[in-house]
Amino acid sequence: MGGWTAGDIPDLDGRRAIVTGANSGIGYHTALRLARRGASVVLACRSAERGRAAADRIKAAAPGADVVLGLLDLADLSSVRTFAARHGTAPLDLLVNNAGVMALPRRSTADGFEMQFGTNHLGHFALTGLLLDALRAAPAPRVVTLTSGFAWSGRLRFDDLQGERRYRKWAAYGQSKLANLVFAKELDRRVPELTSVAAHPGYAATNLQQTGPKLQGSTLMERVFGLGNALMAQSAAAGALPSLYAATAPDVQGGACYGPRLLQYRGAPAKVITPPLADRPGLGERL
What we know:
Layout: E1 16-20, H1 25-36, E2 40-45, H2 48-61, E3 66-71, H3 77-87, E4 94-97, H4 115-130, H5 132-136, E5 142-146, H6 169-190, E6 195-199, H7 208-216, H8 219-232, H9 236-239, H10 241-248, E7 257-262, E8 266-272, H11 283-286
Parallel strand pairs: 1-2, 1-4, 2-3, 4-5, 5-6, 6-7
Antiparallel strand pairs: 7-8
Helix pairs in contact: 3-4, 4-6, 7-8
């Protein structure tokens, strides 16, 4: 059985969506497929140049697509507020919290938070909160927040969330991805007017894996990740399918997580199990 594909996305005419990190990788393919099915899509991107290039590519691939660029830097809360004020005035049917950074050397956001936790979780937490009124104004709003298999190794270190005492880049990444998952579940519990779900792409070839080595100046690790992408990863388009399923499939369950069917590694999207820690009583409230 082939399973669910992008061809199964329902008609989205009249729906409005925001996709963060839509200029490349999974975010780009998510935005492209939503636009192809008739949604009006805001490409929330940090770089105006890359965002415009992505919008042009989508319009070329899907003539008549309704896409607009919105500048958003999730590592700067003033940018998050400006974006929400500009794009949160009309009903919003779908928010895809896709953008993220992975395994960076320790650095801080504009507001002084550790970059991975600040970008992957706090930036999206703020964005979602600022867009809640727009989401509530839509008839059946949905929020999809991307997590990762690294959530299984994550721990929320409330005594050192910012890694000020001890910083390990992969542990910080796992913490941020667990936070994404816990947030998706807690949002679904707290806001009954919308459906909040998590999704993860499995192992997909994007530029995410090579950003950290580039920042560290590690040509060797950059090449290692590039080789891994070439030999073992599924495409970014395939990696976007769990996000698209979570965003559009009629049988999606609030608070659930959707990822690749085959060992959560690759393949058609399906509902997947999540770390038991993510459902620990009181954890979402504390986060």
